[in-house]
Task: structure prediction
Amino acid sequence: MHVHRFACVAVGLGSTLATAGTSDRLPGQGLDVVRYELSLTPDMRGAEVSGVESIVVRSLEKDLRRIVFSPNALIVDRASIDGQTVHVQRGATGVQFDLPTVLRRGQSAVLRISYHGAPARGVVRSPTGVYTSYF
Result:
Protein backbone atom coordinates (compact mmCIF):
# COMPACT_ATOMS: atom_id res chain seq x y z
CA MET A 1 0.00 0.00 0.00
CA HIS A 2 1.36 3.42 -0.96
CA VAL A 3 0.43 6.79 0.41
CA HIS A 4 -0.30 9.29 -2.34
CA ARG A 5 0.05 12.95 -1.45
CA PHE A 6 -1.66 15.68 -3.40
CA ALA A 7 -1.59 19.45 -3.02
CA CYS A 8 -3.68 21.66 -5.23
CA VAL A 9 -5.40 25.00 -5.41
CA ALA A 10 -9.09 24.37 -4.97
CA VAL A 11 -11.44 26.08 -7.37
CA GLY A 12 -14.48 24.45 -5.88
CA LEU A 13 -15.48 22.49 -2.84
CA GLY A 14 -14.60 19.01 -3.95
CA SER A 15 -14.54 16.23 -1.47
CA THR A 16 -15.93 17.09 1.90
CA LEU A 17 -19.14 17.38 3.85
CA ALA A 18 -22.60 19.06 4.80
CA THR A 19 -25.84 18.86 6.91
CA ALA A 20 -29.08 16.91 7.17
CA GLY A 21 -31.55 19.74 7.00
CA THR A 22 -30.15 21.32 10.15
CA SER A 23 -28.84 24.36 8.30
CA ASP A 24 -30.21 26.75 5.74
CA ARG A 25 -26.68 27.25 4.36
CA LEU A 26 -25.71 25.99 0.94
CA PRO A 27 -22.46 24.08 0.43
CA GLY A 28 -19.62 26.59 0.12
CA GLN A 29 -21.74 29.58 1.10
CA GLY A 30 -19.88 32.42 2.82
CA LEU A 31 -16.33 31.21 2.28
CA ASP A 32 -13.50 30.95 -0.17
CA VAL A 33 -11.14 27.97 -0.28
CA VAL A 34 -7.61 29.38 -0.28
CA ARG A 35 -5.57 26.17 -0.20
CA TYR A 36 -6.30 22.47 -0.12
CA GLU A 37 -3.88 19.69 0.89
CA LEU A 38 -4.66 16.00 0.92
CA SER A 39 -2.87 12.88 2.10
CA LEU A 40 -4.75 9.86 0.78
CA THR A 41 -4.16 6.14 1.37
CA PRO A 42 -6.01 3.72 -0.92
CA ASP A 43 -7.00 0.23 0.23
CA MET A 44 -7.43 -1.72 -3.00
CA ARG A 45 -8.63 -4.92 -1.30
CA GLY A 46 -11.39 -3.13 0.55
CA ALA A 47 -11.99 -0.59 -2.27
CA GLU A 48 -11.73 2.16 0.35
CA VAL A 49 -9.62 5.19 1.10
CA SER A 50 -8.51 6.93 4.26
CA GLY A 51 -7.14 10.40 4.36
CA VAL A 52 -6.45 13.67 6.06
CA GLU A 53 -7.38 16.98 4.42
CA SER A 54 -6.31 20.45 5.44
CA ILE A 55 -8.44 23.16 3.88
CA VAL A 56 -7.59 26.82 4.41
CA VAL A 57 -10.82 28.80 4.20
CA ARG A 58 -11.38 32.57 4.26
CA SER A 59 -14.63 34.08 5.45
CA LEU A 60 -16.58 36.17 2.94
CA GLU A 61 -19.20 37.05 5.56
CA LYS A 62 -19.31 39.42 8.51
CA ASP A 63 -19.73 36.54 11.00
CA LEU A 64 -19.15 33.03 9.61
CA ARG A 65 -20.29 30.47 12.20
CA ARG A 66 -20.66 27.31 10.12
CA ILE A 67 -18.99 25.68 7.12
CA VAL A 68 -21.02 23.40 4.85
CA PHE A 69 -19.61 21.21 2.08
CA SER A 70 -21.41 18.96 -0.37
CA PRO A 71 -22.25 15.41 0.77
CA ASN A 72 -20.35 12.24 -0.04
CA ALA A 73 -20.05 8.62 1.11
CA LEU A 74 -16.96 9.04 3.32
CA ILE A 75 -17.08 8.88 7.13
CA VAL A 76 -15.55 11.76 9.08
CA ASP A 77 -13.46 10.44 11.98
CA ARG A 78 -12.27 13.80 13.33
CA ALA A 79 -12.49 17.46 12.40
CA SER A 80 -10.91 20.58 13.81
CA ILE A 81 -10.60 24.28 13.05
CA ASP A 82 -7.21 25.74 13.93
CA GLY A 83 -6.64 22.78 16.26
CA GLN A 84 -9.98 23.03 18.11
CA THR A 85 -12.33 20.06 17.72
CA VAL A 86 -15.54 20.93 15.87
CA HIS A 87 -18.96 19.32 15.84
CA VAL A 88 -19.79 17.62 12.52
CA GLN A 89 -23.31 16.94 11.26
CA ARG A 90 -23.84 14.89 8.14
CA GLY A 91 -26.85 14.34 5.93
CA ALA A 92 -28.17 13.94 2.43
CA THR A 93 -27.71 17.63 1.62
CA GLY A 94 -24.18 18.01 2.93
CA VAL A 95 -21.73 18.01 5.83
CA GLN A 96 -21.73 20.82 8.37
CA PHE A 97 -18.88 21.99 10.62
CA ASP A 98 -19.89 24.32 13.45
CA LEU A 99 -17.04 26.73 14.15
CA PRO A 100 -15.78 27.06 17.75
CA THR A 101 -15.44 30.84 17.26
CA VAL A 102 -16.83 33.25 14.69
CA LEU A 103 -14.69 33.93 11.64
CA ARG A 104 -14.88 37.61 10.68
CA ARG A 105 -14.88 38.75 7.05
CA GLY A 106 -11.37 38.28 5.61
CA GLN A 107 -10.17 36.01 8.44
CA SER A 108 -8.77 32.60 7.53
CA ALA A 109 -8.77 29.29 9.38
CA VAL A 110 -7.57 25.75 8.73
CA LEU A 111 -10.21 23.01 8.67
CA ARG A 112 -8.54 19.63 9.18
CA ILE A 113 -10.59 16.50 8.47
CA SER A 114 -9.66 12.84 8.97
CA TYR A 115 -11.93 10.37 7.18
CA HIS A 116 -12.28 6.89 5.72
CA GLY A 117 -14.70 4.87 3.64
CA ALA A 118 -15.67 3.67 0.20
CA PRO A 119 -16.17 6.44 -2.36
CA ALA A 120 -19.59 6.20 -4.02
CA ARG A 121 -17.96 5.52 -7.39
CA GLY A 122 -15.36 3.13 -6.02
CA VAL A 123 -11.57 3.01 -6.22
CA VAL A 124 -10.14 2.08 -9.61
CA ARG A 125 -6.64 0.82 -10.43
CA SER A 126 -5.21 1.76 -13.80
CA PRO A 127 -1.81 1.15 -15.42
CA THR A 128 -0.71 4.61 -14.30
CA GLY A 129 -2.15 4.72 -10.78
CA VAL A 130 -5.23 4.66 -8.61
CA TYR A 131 -8.18 7.03 -8.89
CA THR A 132 -11.69 7.71 -7.75
CA SER A 133 -14.29 10.14 -8.97
CA TYR A 134 -16.13 12.47 -6.63
CA PHE A 135 -18.91 13.45 -9.05
Summary: The mean pLDDT is 80. The longest strand covers residues 31-43. The radius of gyration is 15 Å.
